[in-house]
Specification:
Blueprint: H1 3-11, E1 18-19, E2 22-25, H2 33-40, E3 45-46, E4 51-54, H3 62-71
Parallel strand pairs: 1-3, 2-4
Length: 74
Amino acid sequence: MPQALYSFFDEYDFSGKTIIPFNVHNGSRFSGTISTIKELELDATVIEDGFTVSERDVAEAAEDVAEWLKGLGY
């Protein structure tokens, strides 16, 4: 997980909130990011079925993102 996200989670309290991870990657997908967020934000709900897309596919991902969000109820 990028250092900027560690700082972000350190700065803000997500207790009682739902965190819905999504990312653009260069081959690593989420790696250990979701489990790290769960460790940092013990009192938050972290959706494990986050959305991840390769940087090569971002331009064509709009429909996939819309489907993913619809599946989450948004």
